[in-house]
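[User]
If only I could read backbone structure tokens as easily as an amino acid sequence. I have put the entry right below:
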Amino acid sequence: MSEPDALPLGEYLRLLMAMNPARTAAAVALITALAASTFAAADDEAQQPHVPSSPMTPRRLPPKAVPPDPAKPSIADFGAPNCHPMYTRASLLAEEQGTVGLLFKVSKEGKLTEASVTRSSGFLKLDQSALQGLSTCTFKPGIVDGRPVDGELRTEYVWKLE
């Protein structure tokens, strides 16, 4: 790619000669000699078999690997029917409120395999109800390279009386 105001080599050399003929002539002679020796060396190499100058020989690099499809995490369908934890009568009467942190694992078949409370609401019945409600949800497994895989999810359920 050339610059918009680039000059052809011949015109550039004529301008240099006009500014300083002695220096330009010396530079042209040097460039000509270097070019001639480079071309002569290239002709000699073309006629002789290639012998590496070092004991290491170049090796062909493997083709670049195609990146895998981005991984898709497991999904819990909290909008599914019956996928909502329910207040127990005792928790309602005691006006218990709080946030329950849950960690759960979903198999590659889309089944809930394990669930635990990572952050308690401070009320055992609310924590147990959150786990019970989670067990009624439906799940989709995570996807890696187009194949279903086991996955792990975290969620929080907020118990709030309104």
Q: What stands out?
A: The mean pLDDT is 74. The beta strands are 75-77, 98-106, 112-119, 138-140, 142-144, 147-149, 151-159.
